[in-house]
Backbone:
């Protein structure tokens, strides 16, 4: 890995390392970097950009970006080896008490970032995993990523939270809206295994640590930190790949006592994705796998209940839209 640009004083009183893994995001990377550079508390930030061999001008745009002098900065380039590799390298380079990760096609709400920095400065250095609110961009612009489901998980006792995070096929649970204690995250080794997913196994491992250590695992619903962009080529749009990666996490990270339930939920939830895509045979096959894995009434009813909820949600949205138009 080659250091291609460095600026600022790394011996200064930095509080938060922000790692930006970049890859083929020339249209977005400047927006991402600007959201960090604009922070009022930029002097407390150590920014590390790691470009994963982008074939476009992503790296060139990052290197040419005009950062303020307050920011400490390192930009690296490496041959293409994937997101998880970039995250692991960034974590290894972090030298501040806290660390966060921002995808180069997303960006921070700068007021939210300043609020996080102020909170970190006012807290003692302890083990934290703070999940902050995020908001969608583009086609879902303005819609919040996290709702009541995550709030309930955040309020659970540590053992119950571990189970809840382990058995649920991952809804958006974003690294880029989360702040971690650096040494705590290193100790759980989030990207040291064979898993290709970056987020779900990380949160499971941190939740596992929280069952034996005093981890401040908290959800901040009113702290909007991140603007999140979903792309057509993302994992969430490739159902077959998503199935493989989720089962990889279940088999390698989830505790054995939660594994059958987690596997059944992965099959059941992704069967609905195939159903919405009108791939009926694939949907039926996965739903059958779910029932074979965990033949319980809860498994059998999970899919139909979610379909009904989705229909009611859409009807509610249509009704509200119609009422507003009158």
Residues:
């Amino acid at each position: 890995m080659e250091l291609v640009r460095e600026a600022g004083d790394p011996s200064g009183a930095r509080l938060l390392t922000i790692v930006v893994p970049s890859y083929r995001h020339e249209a977005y990377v400047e927006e991402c970097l600007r959201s960090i550079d604009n922070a009022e508390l930029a002097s407390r930030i150590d920014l590390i950009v790691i470009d994963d061999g982008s074939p476009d001008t992503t790296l060139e745009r990052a290197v040419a970006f005009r950062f303020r002098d307050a920011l400490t900065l390192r930009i690296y380039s490496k041959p293409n080896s994937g997101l998880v590799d970039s995250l692991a390298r960034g974590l290894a380079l972090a030298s501040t008490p806290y660390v966060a990760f921002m995808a180069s096609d997303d960006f921070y709400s700068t007021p939210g970032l300043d609020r996080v920095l102020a909170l970190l400065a006012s807290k003692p250095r302890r083990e934290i995993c703070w999940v902050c609110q995020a908001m969608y961009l583009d086609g879902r612009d303005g819609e919040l990523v996290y709702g009541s489901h995550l709030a309930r998980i955040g309020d659970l006792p540590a053992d119950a939270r571990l189970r809840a995070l382990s058995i649920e096929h991952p809804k958006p649970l974003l690294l880029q809206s989360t702040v971690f204690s650096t040494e705590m995250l290193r100790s759980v080794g989030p990207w040291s295994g064979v898993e290709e997913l970056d987020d779900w196994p990380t949160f499971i491992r941190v939740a596992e640590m929280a069952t034996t250590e005093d981890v401040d695992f908290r959800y901040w619903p009113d702290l909007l930190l991140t603007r999140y962009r979903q792309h057509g080529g993302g994992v969430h749009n490739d159902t077959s790949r998503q199935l493989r990666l989720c089962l990889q996490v279940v088999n390698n990270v989830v505790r054995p006592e939660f594994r059958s339930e987690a596997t059944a939920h992965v099959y059941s939830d992704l069967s609905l994705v195939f159903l919405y895509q009108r791939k009926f045979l694939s949907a039926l096959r996965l739903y059958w796998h779910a029932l074979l894995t965990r033949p319980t009434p809860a498994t059998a009813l999970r899919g139909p209940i979610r379909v009904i909820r989705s229909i009611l949600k859409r009807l509610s949205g249509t009704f509200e839209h119609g009422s507003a138009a009158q």
Remarks:
- The first strand starts at residue 2 and ends at 7.
- Confidence is low (pLDDT under 50) at residues 318-326.
- Residues 255-325 form one domain.
- Residues 274 and 280 are 7 Å apart (CA to CA).
